[in-house]
Structure formats: C-alpha cells, structure tokens
Specification:
Blueprint lengths: L2 H18 L27 H14 L4 H9 L2 H7 L3 H22 L21 E3 L2 E3 L1 H9 L18 H6 L30 H16 L1 E3 L4 E4 L2 H4 L6 H11 L10 E4 L15
Parallel strand pairs: 4-5
Antiparallel strand pairs: 1-2, 3-4
Length: about 280
C-alpha cells in the first residue's frame, strides 16, 4: 500500500473515531420563548411542528427568519421533548429545521459550502452552528444524531456512535426512516427537493417525495440488468438494509420493475451549489 493511500486511510480512521466518540453539544444560556406569538389568531396555539413549517415557509418566501430562529434558540430542551411527543411530529420538525437551516446559512454566506469536506477547522456539516434550545448543534447532529439515531456517518449506516449525548437520547427518533435521504436537502444540485413537512401528512409526504426522487434519478437498463441509482443509496446502504433492501425499496417505489434483480451502480453526485429547490407535496 503506497504512502498516499495509508495517509488517506489514517485520516478516515481518525475521523471515524472522533465521530464515534463525539461529546455533548456546546451550551449557552437561554431566556425562554413563547412560540404562540407566531400564531395568526390570538386564541390559536402553535405546536413546535407547526413552528418548523413556518420557518421553512419564511425562508422560501423571503420573509425575515431571525425572530423564529431566535425563539428556537431560546426554548427549552424539556419543551422540545414534551411537544415532539409522536414520531410524526419529530419527523416533520427535524426535517424542516434541517432544510431551513441549510438554506439560511448558505443564503447568508454561500462560501460556507466550500468547506464541507474539511477534517480540521470549520466544516459546513459537522461544525456546531445551529442554536436550538440552549445548545449549538451541527447539521450532522440533526441528521446522523437525532434522525439517524446516532449513526456514525462514515460507516455506510452500519455502526452507531459509542458515546451518545444525553440530549440526543431524549430527542432522537424512535426508528430510522431511510426515506429521509430523499427528503433532506444539503444545498447541492443532486440533493432532493425541499418540502414543508406537515406532521398530519408527513408519512404521505415522505412516500411522495421518495417516489419522485427515486424515479427521477434511477436509470434502469433491462438488457444489461443494471440500475444506475443515486449515490445516496451507497452512502447510507445500512439504513436500507443493505443493497438487497435498497433494491426492494426501488421496486416498492416503482423505480425498477417488481420482478427485476439488477446490479446497482451509482450516479456521480453533483455538488454544485443550488439553493431554493422547493417542491409542493
């Protein structure tokens, strides 16, 4: 094995160990916030899931987001845990917050996206920069910690982190839903669409957006028995139950024929920055 390859593997191993042993979220003092101030009607109460929908809508429509993000920073962890009391609410809230913050950060400073692969210093995905309930969280914390139940992002979905933050344990989803990979928008051209996820419709919406994304990105060649699919399936194959589970997902969503069993190859991922890619569901 040549020196360059050894250095690359050492860097990967160090990154995996660092991620697996990640510590607690940085904390800051909060002053509390009543999210009901964002209700259109005085008598109506706003849930956190509805609050997250409002944040995405404000970003999409070019409205000020600072009052919402300031409030999100100042609510309590107890409030998050108490109000997100169903899997549907958790799914809608955390997907909306992730998608909204990618847009907020990159609309403010598109150059942040250039530092998405850094192992040292600032990294767009792994650096804590999202203030939520007195904690600074990263996009990776939201996706791989809370939504993917503390799964190490460098292990293709096959290994959980060894040490899990107590807050993460309180907020994480009950189960990993692999459809999130077709619902989270990271700011790149190859990323899925941005939708406003409603807790009352989130399961239906995840079905719709998964079907749309897989059918748009899959190229099936029956003569060669090959399906060229999004590289997201390769990166997170463990979430799908391996490549066999991924093929079943492709069948279930009509991207390949039900009676097919093709070899999977993976599309190149286009990391060109593309913001504002919204879709009504």
């Amino acid at each position: 094995m040549n020196t360059k390859r050894i250095i690359i593997w050492m860097a990967i191993c160090i990154a995996m160990l660092t991620s697996a042993c990640s510590g607690s979220y940085p904390e800051f003092e909060t002053g509390g916030c009543d999210i009901n101030q964002f209700s259109d009607e005085e008598e109506d109460r706003v849930t956190l899931a509805e609050f997250s929908m409002l944040l995405v809508e404000h970003v999409r429509d070019g409205k000020p987001t600072e009052p919402l993000t300031d409030c999100l920073a100042n609510i309590s962890i107890n409030q998050l845990e108490f109000q997100l009391d169903s899997e549907e609410k958790k799914k809608a809230f955390w997907m909306n917050i992730y998608n909204a913050y990618v847009q907020i950060l990159l609309l403010d400073d598109p150059e942040l996206f250039e530092d998405r692969n850094s192992l040292i210093g600032y990294n767009f995905f792994s650096s804590p920069q999202i203030p939520i309930a007195g904690r600074l969280m990263s996009l990776d914390d939201l996706e791989h910690g809370i939504m993917r139940r503390s799964t190490n992002k460098l292990t293709l979905g096959y290994m959980r982190n060894w040490f899990i933050d107590d807050v993460e344990k309180r907020l994480m989803w009950d189960e990993i839903d692999p459809r999130i990979h077709f619902a989270l928008n990271c700011g790149a051209k190859s990323c899925p669409y941005i939708a406003v996820f409603d807790p009352d419709r989130v399961e239906e919406q995840l079905t719709l957006i998964t079907r749309k994304y897989l059918n748009e990105t899959t190229e099936y060649n029956p003569e060669d028995n090959v399906a060229k699919v999004t590289r997201l399936i390769s990166w997170f194959r463990g979430d799908f139950g391996g490549l066999s589970g991924a093929k079943q997902l492709l069948r279930d969503y009509g991207a390949i024929p039900e009676d097919s069993d093709p070899k999977l190859t993976f599309q190149e991922y286009d990391w060109t920055l593309e913001l504002g890619n919204y879709q009504d569901l």
